[in-house]
Amino acid sequence: MDLINKLKISQGQFFAILTALSATVLIVSNLASTKMFDFFSTGLVWDGGAILFPLSYIIGDITTEFFGFERTKKVIWTSFAMNLIAVLALFIVQILPPGPGWENQLAYETIIGFMPRIVAGSLIAFVSGQILNSFVFVKIKEITKGKHFWQRAIGSSLVGDLVDTLIFTTIAFIGTISTTQFIGLLIIAYVSKIAGETILLPVTYAVVNIFKKLVDNETESV
Description:
Elements: H1 2-7, E1 9-10, H2 11-32, E2 36-38, E3 45-47, H3 49-95, H4 105-112, H5 116-143, H6 149-173, H7 179-199, H8 201-214, E4 215-216
Parallel strand pairs: 1-4
Antiparallel strand pairs: 2-3
């Protein structure tokens, strides 16, 4: 008990931590998405961002569980703004003329290249999916009277991930790949997100239970 008291943090501190994590995961996911990899040598090609993306919804669930829908929206919009700043900064750096002797401009553009459709799809999908995820999470929590965390965590993700995947895949890839490839990409992306969040559900449970003990509900100060 003494250790728990020493580790206690205020609601404001916890909220700041969740906001920072949400923004970081979104930015890193978008950067990591420039790397494509063969999933366990199965021939299924995924982007690197798929590894981290489920964490954004887990963070969203934890934020909604502790702070409700309205404050979670602040986290979502803050993450959106931070990602937009990162994208603009990288774009500005990209269009700056390369220095004498620096021969990596093409490599930089290949890895960090500003791709309007992908960036637009990512940002719009993130905000839409996350807000819907949080809204559904709260509604399920009301219906179940605060019981069965797993039901609201998975239930909200089923809806939020679907909207997120539909919006991103449509904006980023429609017209650039065949209909068959588009449908396949849509299904694989959606199933992988849900599978990732389901596998990590015990971790989410543990984090929620730990912070319910560590967060001081009587203080808001940062």
